[in-house]
C-alpha cells in the first residue's frame, strides 16, 4: 500500500535562500558587524602565542637573556586573556543576533502560513506545514544561535592561522596548504551530495508525521472500517522511507569524518619534513636566503596543529549547517506558495450567491482526475435557508467549500454579488461567507480569548449572548467562567476539559460573533447529540434571521426546517425545492426522507 499522493509545499532554491539570509543579516547589521569585528580581534590575539614562542626559541638559541623570555611570556599571557574575553563577548553578541533573527523567522513563517489558502494546506498535508514550523525552524534557530557563530569564529581563526604561516615562511605555508588538500576533496565530495540528501530526509520526515498524525486522529474510523492492516502498512512505508533517508545522511558523514581526521596530521608532517630538510641544507651550506630558522619551523608546526581546532569545529557543525540549509529552504519555500489576496479587489454588489455550470475535480495525481462536481447550477437568495443533502460522496462538502471560497471551480463560476468568491481578500470574504465544519480547535487560552478571535471588540455580554444562542449553558458551571483556561487546573478544582461537543459549540459561538451575511454549515452539528444539535441550529437560525444559511446536512430534520432543499447525487444537482414539494414528488429526496424515518416500504 502507498500513501495518498500529496501536493507538497514548495522548497526554495539556493539563490533564494541566500537572498533571504542576506535580508535577515541586513535587518540586524550592526550586531552582525560587531560579531565579525570581535571574532577577528579574538583570532588575531590567538595568533600571538605561537609567533612569540618561535621568537623565544630563536632568542634562546641565539643566547638571549631571561628578561627577554619573560617579556615574551607576559605578552603571550596577556594575549591569551584578551583572546578569551574577546571570544566570549563575540559569542554573546552572536547568540543575541541569532535569537533575534530566529524570532523574525518564526514570525515570518506564521504570517506566511496564515496567508496560505486552506486548500493549499489541506492538499499539502498538515504534517508538512507542522514539520516546517517546528523541526525545520528549530534547526535554523540552532544554526543561527550555535552553529553559525561557532563556524564563523572557526573560519576567521583558520584564515588568520594560514595567513600567519605564510608570513613566517611562504614555502612552509605552501607545504601546509598542500597537506590540507585531503580535507578540501573530502568536504567537496560531501557538500555535493549532502543538500539533496538532507532535503529528502526533511520531506520523508514530513510525510511520516502526516501519515502518523492522520492515522492517530482517525483511529476510530480505522477501527470501524477494519483498516488497521492497511494503515499499518502505510505507516511502515513512511517510517521505512524516513529510515532510508536518515541512513543516507549518516553514510555521507561516515566517509567525511574519518577522511578529515587523517588529513589533520598531513600538513604538520609536511611542514616538519620540509623544515628539517631546509634546516639541514642551511647548516651544511653556511646559511642562505632559502634557509628557515628553527623557531619558524616550530611556529609553523604549532600553527598548523592549532588549525585542527577551528577546522574540527567547522566540520563538526557541517552536518548541522547542511541540515539547517535544507530546513531554511523548506521554511523559505512558504514564500513561494500561493497566498490569499491581502487587500483590494472588487466589492460584491449584493448578497446573492450564484453557482453557474460548475465543474470541480480534486488533484489526485492522475492525468485526467475525475470530476466530483459536474455542471452544477444553483442560485441562493439573500436571507434564504438552504439545505444541501445527498448520499455520501455526492459532492455536498465540495460544493460547500466552493461556496465558502476555499476552492476555485475547474470550470464555471461561483459568485457573490457578481464577484467570484475565491477572488475576495480575507477581510471581504469573512464579511460575506463563513464556513463551519466538523473540524474545530480550542486554543490553550481563556474561553473569552477563544471567542474574541472572531470579534476582538466583543463585550462579555455579547460573548455570553453568543454562547446562549448555541446552547452552551455549561459555561456557568466552569470554576472561573469566561476566564477558564481549557486543559488548565483551576484553583482548588479538577482539570477543565472541553470535549468535542462543547468545542463545537464554541466554534458555533465564534460564528455568531463574526456575524457574516452567509453561513455555510458543513455538518457542523454532527458531534452534538440530537436534542442539543436541533437547539443549536434553531438558535442560529434565530440569530442569523435575515441572513443566508447553507446547511450541508446529514440529518434530514435540518432539511425539513429549510426554505429549500438541494439534492446532490454523483456530483450533480438532481432536485431543488421545498421539503414538502420534494416529498410529494416522490423522487430521490422522498426516498431519502422515507429511509431516514424508517419507512417499511423502503426497507423492503
Topology, number of strands = 10
Number of helices: 20
Could you describe the largest sheet, including whether it forms a barrel? 6 strands, mixed
| CA-based gyration radius | 35 Å
**What is the CATH architecture annotation of the largest domain?**
Up-down Bundle
Structural class: alpha/beta
N- to C-terminal separation?
38 Å
- Overall domain count: 2
DSSP strand content = 5-15%
Overall shape: it is elongated
Low-pLDDT segments: 1-5, 282-290, 489-493, 600-604
Percent in helix: 55-70%
Strand order of the largest sheet: 6-7-8-3-9-10
CATH topology name of the largest domain, in short, is ABC transporter transmembrane region fold
CATH-defined superfamily of the largest domain: ABC transporter type 1, transmembrane domain
What is the averaged pLDDT score? 78
* CATH first level of the largest domain: Mainly Alpha
Following the backbone from N to C, one meets helices and strands in this order, namely HHHHHHHHHHEEEHEEHEHHHEHEHEEHHH
Amino acid at each position: 500500500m502507498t500513501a495518498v499522493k500529496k501536493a507538497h509545499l514548495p522548497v526554495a532554491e539556493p539563490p533564494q535562500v541566500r537572498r533571504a539570509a542576506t535580508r535577515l543579516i541586513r535587518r540586524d547589521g550592526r550586531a552582525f558587524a560587531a560579531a565579525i569585528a570581535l571574532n577577528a580581534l579574538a583570532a588575531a590575539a590567538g595568533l600571538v602565542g605561537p609567533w612569540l614562542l618561535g621568537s623565544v626559541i630563536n632568542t634562546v638559541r641565539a643566547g638571549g637573556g631571561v628578561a627577554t623570555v619573560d617579556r615574551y611570556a607576559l605578552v603571550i599571557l596577556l594575549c591569551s586573556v584578551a583572546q578569551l574575553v574577546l571570544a566570549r563577548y563575540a559569542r554573546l553578541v552572536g547568540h543575541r543576533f541569532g535569537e533575534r533573527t530566529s524570532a523574525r523567522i518564526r514570525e515570518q513563517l506564521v504570517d506566511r502560513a496564515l496567508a496560505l489558502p486552506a486548500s493549499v494546506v489541506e492538499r499539502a498535508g498538515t504534517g508538512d506545514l507542522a514539520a516546517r514550523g517546528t523541526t525545520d525552524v528549530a534547526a535554523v534557530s540552532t544554526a543561527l544561535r550555535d552553529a553559525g557563530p561557532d563556524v564563523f569564529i572557526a573560519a576567521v581563526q583558520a584564515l588568520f592561522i594560514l595567513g600567519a604561516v605564510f608570513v613566517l615562511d611562504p614555502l612552509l605555508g605552501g607545504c601546509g596548504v598542500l597537506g590540507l588538500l585531503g580535507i578540501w576533496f573530502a568536504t567537496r565530495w560531501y557538500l555535493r551530495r549532502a543538500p539533496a540528501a538532507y532535503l529528502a530526509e526533511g520531506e520523508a520526515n514530513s510525510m511520516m508525521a502526516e501519515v502518523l498524525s492522520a492515522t492517530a486522529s482517525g483511529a476510530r474510523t480505522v477501527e470501524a472500517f477494519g483498516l488497521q492492516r492497511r494503515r499499518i502498512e502505510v505507516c511502515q512505508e513512511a517510517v521505512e522511507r524516513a529510515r532510508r533517508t536518515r541512513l543516507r545522511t549518516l553514510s555521507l558523514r561516515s566517509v567525511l569524518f574519518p577522511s578529515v581526521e587523517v588529513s589533520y596530521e598531513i600538513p604538520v608532517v609536511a611542514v616538519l619534513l620540509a623544515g628539517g630538510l631546509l634546516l639541514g641544507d642551511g647548516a651544511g651550506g653556511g646559511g642562505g636566503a632559502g634557509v628557515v630558522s628553527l623557531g619558524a619551523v616550530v611556529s609553523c608546526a604549532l600553527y598548523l596543529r592549532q588549525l585542527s581546532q577551528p577546522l574540527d569545529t567547522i566540520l563538526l557543525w557541517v552536518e548541522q549547517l547542511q541540515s539547517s540549509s535544507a530546513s531554511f529552504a523548506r521554511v523559505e519555500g512558504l514564500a513561494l506558495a500561493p497566498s490569499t489576496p491581502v487587500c483590494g479587489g472588487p466589492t460584491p454588489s449584493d448578497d446573492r450567491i450564484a453557482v453557474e455550470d460548475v465543474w470541480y475535480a480534486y488533484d489526485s495525481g492522475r492525468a485526467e482526475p475525475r470530476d466530483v462536481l459536474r455542471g452544477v447550477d444553483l442560485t441562493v437568495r439573500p436571507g434564504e435557508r438552504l439545505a444541501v443533502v445527498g448520499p455520501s460522496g455526492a459532492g455536498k462538502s465540495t460544493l460547500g467549500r466552493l461556496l465558502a471560497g476555499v476552492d476555485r471551480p475547474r470550470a464555471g463560476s461561483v459568485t457573490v454579488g457578481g464577484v467570484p468568491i475565491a477572488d475576495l481578500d480575507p477581510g471581504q470574504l469573512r464579511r460575506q461567507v463563513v464556513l463551519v465544519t466538523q473540524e474545530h480547535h480550542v486554543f490553550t487560552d481563556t474561553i473569552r480569548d477563544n471567542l474574541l478571535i472572531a470579534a476582538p471588540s466583543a463585550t462579555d455580554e455579547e460573548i455570553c449572548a453568543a454562547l446562549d444562542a448555541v446552547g452552551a449553558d455549561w459555561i456557568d458551571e466552569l470554576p472561573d467562567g469566561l476566564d477558564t483556561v481549557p486543559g488548565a487546573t483551576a484553583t482548588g478544582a479538577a482539570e477543565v476539559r472541553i470535549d468535542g461537543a462543547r468545542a463545537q459549540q464554541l466554534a458555533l459561538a465564534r460564528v455568531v460573533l463574526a456575524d457574516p451575511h452567509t453561513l455555510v454549515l458543513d455538518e457542523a452539528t454532527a458531534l452534538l447529540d440530537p436534542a442539543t444539535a436541533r437547539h443549536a441550529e434553531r438558535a442560529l437560525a434565530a440569530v442569523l434571521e435575515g441572513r443566508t444559511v447553507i446547511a450541508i446536512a446529514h440529518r434530514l430534520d435540518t432539511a425539513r426546517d429549510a426554505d429549500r432543499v438541494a439534492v446532490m447525487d454523483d456530483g450533480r444537482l438532481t432536485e431543488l425545492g421545498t421539503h414538502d414539494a420534494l416529498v410529494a414528488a416522490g423522487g430521490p429526496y422522498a426516498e431519502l426522507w422515507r429511509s431516514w424515518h424508517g419507512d417499511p416500504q423502503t426497507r423492503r
